[in-house]
């Protein structure tokens, strides 16, 4: 075995340099939803430009009517929100709303929000202390389940 063969064997054993593709393979594709006040088309374009210049971003969706910005890519949610806040000077918070279907009692005082877009309420299932009335107790669940449309004779012995 010659010197060149030994050297080439060492080079093959040496790890390859890390590139952007290698780094993205280790990260998960993530979707970040934020609530940002968007007043005009200038605000929208400023947010887009801020996010397009970020590494790892694959898609940007800005909905000015709902004040919602959705970013998909190989990014960290906290970094994306900090960057938008720093570059645009606007207050940024995670998207606090979920569809009506997810919440058991969407019109409970803690869940219902007048400023929410149509079809959305606050996500009270993630933080039950925020709206204690939005969750049904075990007693309420038992009473509402007793008179079910699926089984009308389940709890009523009189009828």
TrEMBL record:
CDD domains: HMA. Keywords: Metal-binding. Residues 29-93 form the HMA domain. InterPro entries: HMA_dom, HMA_dom_sf. One of its GO terms (molecular function) is metal ion binding. PANTHER family: COPPER TRANSPORT PROTEIN ATOX1-RELATED (PTHR22814), HMA DOMAIN-CONTAINING PROTEIN (PTHR22814:SF291). This is Predicted protein. It comes from Hordeum vulgare subsp. vulgare.
């Amino acid at each position: 075995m010659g010197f060149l063969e030994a050297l080439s064997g060492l080079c093959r054993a040496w790890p390859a340099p890390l590139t952007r593709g290698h780094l993205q393979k280790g990260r998960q594709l993530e979707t970040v939803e934020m609530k940002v006040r968007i007043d005009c088309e200038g605000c929208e374009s400023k947010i887009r430009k801020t996010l397009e210049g970020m590494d790892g971003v694959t898609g940007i969706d800005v909905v000015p009517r709902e004040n919602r910005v959705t970013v998909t890519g190989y990014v960290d949610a906290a970094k994306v929100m900090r960057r938008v806040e720093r570059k645009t000077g606007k207050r940024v918070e995670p998207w606090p709303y979920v569809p009506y279907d997810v919440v058991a009692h969407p019109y409970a005082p803690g869940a219902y929000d007048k400023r929410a877009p149509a079809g959305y309420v606050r996500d009270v299932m993630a933080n039950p202390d925020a709206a204690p009335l939005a969750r049904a107790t075990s007693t309420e669940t038992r009473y509402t389940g007793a008179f079910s449309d699926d089984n009308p004779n389940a709890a009523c012995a009189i009828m």
